Amino acid sequence: MPTDPHLDVPEAVRVQILATEHWSLLATRNITYGAIYSRANIFLTVVSAAVVALALVAQATEFGDRFTYLHSSFCRSLSSSGWGHTSVSSTQGPKTSGSCPA
User: What are the counts of helices (DSSP H) followed by strands (DSSP E) for the chain?
Assistant: First the structure.
């Protein structure tokens, strides 16, 4: 009759392994949250700067042709930096691109 391999390991060792795994998962989660927050912060900074720049150009050009050209180029560069893009990771599935609002 086979014995359970878990019974051969002392309870203190099992608790130590579980505690180590627990703290490892907490550290990984903390690193992931930090990366997400820093990327979101950078993205919002870029979007805010683009909106301010567009407002200044719109005021200076009175919404003329130069504003339209600059607006479309800003939308392209924001789109390439992540605006409207969704993906789980770079190895899972295709990215879908949204359009820039007019």
Answer: 2, 0
Helix (H, G, I), strand (E, B) or coil at 58: helix
- pLDDT tens per residue, the chain (102 residues)? 557 766 788 889 999 999 999 999 999 999 999 999 998 998 889 889 989 988 998 898 888 888 888 888 888 877 777 655 444 444 444 444 444 544
Total domain count, the chain: 1
Query: Which residue reads 């924001």 in tokens?
Result: 78
**How many CA within 13 A on the CB side of residue 5?**
0
Rg (alpha carbons) of the chain, rounded to whole number: 25
| Boundaries of domain holding 65 | 12-74
